[in-house]
Amino acid sequence: MRLAVFASGEGTNFQAILDAVGGDRLPAEVACCISNTKDAGALKRADQHDVPTEVIPPASFESPEAFGHALLDGLAAHDVTFVALAGYMQKIPPNVVDAYRGSMTNIHPALLPAFGGQGMYGMHVHRAVIDYGVHWTGATVHLVDEEYDHGPIVLQEPVPVYADDTPEALANRVREVEHRLYPEALRLFAAGRVHQDDRCIRIDAPDHPRRSPTDSE
């Protein structure tokens, strides 16, 4: 798997992916980091790990299609086979979704389909969770389609919401789960264990060693 990570912010999920690759927990090569802004902290993390970077601001293009072509050119230049969105604050153009359908994931800081959609990102999500009064939130890794936070769900993990939670405290607990869940989801894709049937995602169980007839019971 030759992986591109799209990020707009500090890139803590990007760092979790880099750590998983460096720790031999994710059999992938991080081929590039693409951002919409030159000020993204993720780009500094990429430089520290000798990962090539691209800054492709959508405002520089006359249409989403033209923006998409620029993204596709950047991905092709690095022979990217899989895309991971990690705090990327831009809608992916349809031509990029088509090119990487089934091979592009996003991580969202809630249990989709709850608390998703346009404008629901970062602290906006955690404030909405607390204001609504739910007892559980979490993190979701999903495939990317043409709608915000809508693609088939690959992995989810719940996180409790406490009565005295602040958005910042909740965000920290959710982020800890994200940093574990996202590399694990990418590892499953790299191992060829993720299969899609419309909105249903099936994950193959890991292979178990066959027992020899001489093995003791």
TrEMBL record:
Q: In which pathway does it act?
A: Purine metabolism; IMP biosynthesis via de novo pathway; N(2)-formyl-N(1)-(5-phospho-D-ribosyl)glycinamide from N(1)-(5-phospho-D-ribosyl)glycinamide (10-formyl THF route): step 1/1
Reactions that this protein is recorded to catalyse:
N(1)-(5-phospho-beta-D-ribosyl)glycinamide + (6R)-10-formyltetrahydrofolate = N(2)-formyl-N(1)-(5-phospho-beta-D-ribosyl)glycinamide + (6S)-5,6,7,8-tetrahydrofolate + H(+)
Q: Gene Ontology terms, cellular component aspect?
A: cytoplasm
Q: Which residues bind N(1)-(5-phospho-beta-D-ribosyl)glycinamide?
A: G11, T12, N13
Positions of the Formyl transferase N-terminal domain = 1-186
Q: Kindly state which keywords UniProt assigns to this record, in alphabetical order.
A: Purine biosynthesis, Transferase
Name the NCBIfam families for this protein.
PurN (TIGR00639)
This chain's source organism reads Salinibacter ruber
Q: Short name of one Pfam family for this protein?
A: Formyl_trans_N
Query: What is the annotated role of this protein in its UniProt record?
Result: Catalyzes the transfer of a formyl group from 10-formyltetrahydrofolate to 5-phospho-ribosyl-glycinamide (GAR), producing 5-phospho-ribosyl-N-formylglycinamide (FGAR) and tetrahydrofolate.
Gene behind this protein: purN
State the protein's name.
Phosphoribosylglycinamide formyltransferase
Active-site feature positions: H108 (proton donor)
**Per the UniProt entry, what are the Gene Ontology biological process annotations, in alphabetical order?**
'de novo' IMP biosynthetic process
* Any one Gene Ontology molecular-function term assigned to this protein's record: phosphoribosylglycinamide formyltransferase activity
Annotated residues that bind (6R)-10-formyltetrahydrofolate are located at N106
Recorded hits in Gene3D superfamilies, A to Z, give: Formyl transferase, N-terminal domain
Give the family this protein belongs to, as stated in its UniProt record: Belongs to the GART family.
Question: Which residues bear the site annotation Raises pKa of active site His?
Answer: D149
